[in-house]
Design goal:
12% of the residues lie in helices and 42% in strands. It contains seven helices and 49 strands. The strands form twelve sheets. Strands 3, 24, 25, 26, 48 and 49 form a six-stranded antiparallel β-sheet that branches. Strands 43, 44, 45, 46 and 47 form a five-stranded antiparallel β-sheet that branches. A hairpin with an 8-residue loop joins strand 13 (298-303) and strand 14 (312-317).
């Protein structure tokens, strides 16, 4: 120890552990305590990744850090949590503990300006301190590390000064001038607008009326009809122009979860394959990222490097075919789904996470310069574009929880501001090369609930219909009520309807302060647990059926989703990436105690059968779809269904007795889905309903009545999207 009694450091450790920032995270406290206490004992050789994995995270002695990055994931979270603590409640603490990057040996420094002793603080003000007195090391750290940290702190000071100066510069705010007008208002779904370099044409994907799947078209401004560019029978999306305007690159979906990036000549329509890539959740609403670098030498592509790894962005050299990873998304996240180069090619703005936040990173790669998050409170990103001067990033957003609109944020950060919003959903912005026009995808769609009879010859009828989006229904345990999500009041809220009536009433009053997902009933029918997306994270909350009061159940920076009560209502099980990987966790339903992991599999979507105390889930990995059942009492696991098709989203699975219901699609044609029933006793399967077009990922989820007689599913009543254009000023 240098310059302080170990008792002072131990006291600071206990102060941190008892703080609100840390008391809610047992793992963070355990991690920090192990590092600090081993350091105080001088056991520096014990403060390493393998030892931490075994002692703190319960891994086996054969732990392989290459296969399981749990220590690195939690180290980053611990550093972030310490930064947050010292920026708020710990700002005046006399000792600062931190863990330098590149290792796990902690460092502690005295913070002279924060001494609690009045006389000492007064002396510090009156007498100039020696240079080393400002930050005196308490825990051992090699001298070379101190040199590096001094340089880092100096650089950080310069950066903070630059940011402070930049924050006081007047910001140029973009705005739409006049009304937005359609490019051609053709029937069907026009998506993914992309301007030609000369600003005279727009390329887009189009599912014309009665035609499937999507094709690539382009249309000159002023013409009344588009020209088809491609001749393939596969689904195609995301056209982007080469900087010289002579080619268009686009995505063509293939089987087995693959897509191909293709270049096509504008003049003779000759195609050149760039390569094949993998991507999770292929569907017509959520396409992989694709962009052409401003210098024309490379393409930016989203790719999933392995079945268990998150999607990342890679840069493909068009001359050599070499692929260079651009981003390194954290394990357990959905990954980095779309990205766009800045006009000068030095930065890439991208969307990280399922609904996602907006980030920006150097085009040299995240391994050299960490990505910066620009929208920590943003509830979703869909479509990204840069302003012509590179100062602003435009993106489709559910900011405010009242539907999708086009928003902007400065590349330096700050609060997002609206550019274009309306009564219909607006996504996928594209700015013309001269920066004077904005093209967007305007969606007009209605999803209503449909009740399907499972008895006799069947039949179906609307359930509590509206003119907005209704989805994610769940029957009450007695079958007398149905809770569902709806935008019929403007923002996404929880609604209730009697199962024998079309009359619904609003249960929650979130009013855009986050939006709910995946509701599920308590066994006594008195409460409903749901996931809520808010402040850049997805947590769990419980609403009272009697009076609509809502209480939070978890408050973490993680993604906690698909909750359900166990048979006696004591625990709530849910899917979480809190441990750096997708796993099932549980937490006490009354909010007491801490969440705990249940088993190591990664069930991206799952359903619970109370009678059998089993979880039915999508098994991770593999080339096709596998549904397994896990007995929570015995731990026994069995396969109940296997297919080469794809389970597109959480909520596409429900169970009643021996029957399992899944909503699947072909990976080569995500615009179509079908509802399948599986009898786990006999192995028989049947197709109950086809959906075309498929539902967007957010607007899914279905439920079967407790008596097994009725299935309620959301179905697309209307889906039309057009390319609109507007003058852009500011």
């Amino acid at each position: 120890m240098i310059g302080a009694d170990p008792t002072d450091v131990q006291a600071q450790l206990e102060r941190i552990a008892a703080s609100p920032a840390f008391s809610a995270s047992l793992r963070a406290v355990q991690f920090l305590r192990f590092c600090v206490e081993q350091s105080l004992k001088g056991n520096y050789d014990q403060i390493k990744e393998t030892t931490l994995a075994i002692e703190v995270f319960g891994r086996s002695p054969g732990y392989d850090p290459k296969a399981d990055p749990i220590v690195r994931v939690h180290a980053k979270r611990l550093r972030d949590r310490l930064d947050s603590y010292y920026a708020a409640e710990g700002a005046r603490d006399p000792i600062r503990i931190f863990i330098p990057k590149g290792g796990y040996i902690p460092c502690a420094v005295r913070h002279l300006g924060s001494y609690c002793d009045t006389e000492e603080r007064q002396r510090a003000r009156e007498e100039p301190a020696a240079p080393e007195a400002d930050a005196q090391p308490i825990l051992r750290l090699p001298a070379v590390h101190w040199i590096l940290w001094a340089a880092l702190l100096a650089a950080l000071g310069a950066v903070l000064l630059a940011v402070n100066i930049s924050a006081h510069k007047p910001k140029r705010v973009l705005s739409v001038q006049g009304a937005a007008l359609p490019l051609n208002a053709s029937p069907g779904m026009e998506q993914n607008p992309s301007w030609s370099p000369d600003g005279k044409s727009i390329a887009f994907s189009w599912i014309s009326e009665g035609q499937a799947p999507s094709r690539i078209y382009f249309q000159r401004i002023g013409d009344t009809a588009p020209t088809r560019l491609t001749g393939s029978s596969e689904a195609e999306y995301c056209p982007v122009w080469s900087p010289d305007g002579r080619q268009i690159a686009f995505i063509r979906y293939l089987d087995s979860g693959l897509f191909e990036v293709v270049r096509i000549s504008i003049d003779d329509h000759r195609e050149t394959a760039v390569g094949q890539f993998s991507f999770d959740g292929l569907q017509f609403y959520e396409q992989p990222g694709l962009d052409w670098s401003p210098n024309g030498k490379s393409l930016l592509v989203a790719d999933k490097p392995s079945p268990t790894a998150p999607v990342r962005l890679v840069i493909v050299d068009l001359a050599t075919g070499n692929r260079r990873p651009l981003t390194t998304p954290p394990p357990g996240s959905a990954g980095d789904l779309e990205g766009k180069f800045s006009p000068d090619g030095k930065l890439v703005a991208f969307h990280r996470g399922g609904l996602g936040d907006l980030y920006v990173v150097s085009s040299n790669g995240e391994n050299l310069n960490p990505a910066r998050r620009l929208t920590p409170d943003n509830p979703g990103v869909h479509g990204i574009a840069w302003s012509r001067d590179g100062r602003h990033i435009l993106f489709g957003s559910m900011e405010g929880g009242h539907g999708w609109g086009i928003w902007q944020v400065s590349v330096d950060g700050g609060a997002p501001a609206p550019v274009l919003t309306g009564s219909l959903d607006l996504t996928w912005p594209a700015v013309s090369p001269d920066g004077r026009h904005l093209a967007v995808e305007q969606q007009d769609f209605v999803t209503n609930l449909t009740a399907i009879s499972l008895e006799g010859s069947g039949g179906e009828h609307p359930f509590a219909p509206s003119s907005r989006q209704d989805f994610a229904p769940a029957y009450s345990p007695d079958g007398k009520q149905v809770v569902f999500l709806s935008t019929r009041s403007g923002s996404i809220e929880l609604w209730l309807a009697k199962s024998d009536s079309n009359v619904a009433h609003q249960l929650s009053q979130l009013n855009g302060n986050g939006f709910p997902l995946t509701p599920s009933w308590s066994p006594d029918g008195k409460n409903i647990v749901f996931a809520i997306r808010r402040r850049g994270a997805t947590n769990l909350a419980v609403v009272s059926v009697a009076d609509g009061t809502v209480r939070s159940l978890t408050d973490t920076p993680d993604r906690n989703i698909s909750p359900f009560y166990d048979t006696d209502g004591r625990y709530i099980y849910y899917d979480s990436n809190a441990d750096g990987m997708e796993r099932i966790w549980r937490v006490a339903a009354d909010g007491t105690g801490r969440p705990e992991e249940m088993f190591w599999d990664a069930p991206w979507t799952f359903a619970f059968s109370r009678p059998t105390q089993s979880i039915y889930f999508q098994s991770p990995g593999g080339e096709g779809l596998e549904i397994d059942a896990l007995d929570l009492k015995t731990g026994a696991r069995r396969q109940v269904f296997r297919s080469q098709e794809w389970l597109a989203a959480a909520g596409n699975l429900c169970v009643n007795g021996s029957k399992v219901y899944v909503l699947v699609s072909r990976k080569s044609d995500p615009s179509h889905q079908k509802l399948i029933s599986i009898d786990t006793a006999s192995g028989d399967t049947a197709v109950l309903k086809n959906f075309a077009p498929a539902l967007p990922q957010m607007y899914i989820g279905f439920t079967v009545s407790p008596n097994g007689n009725t299935l309620i599913v959301p179905a697309m009543e209307r889906f039309d999207s057009d390319i609109y254009m507007a003058a852009l000023g500011g």
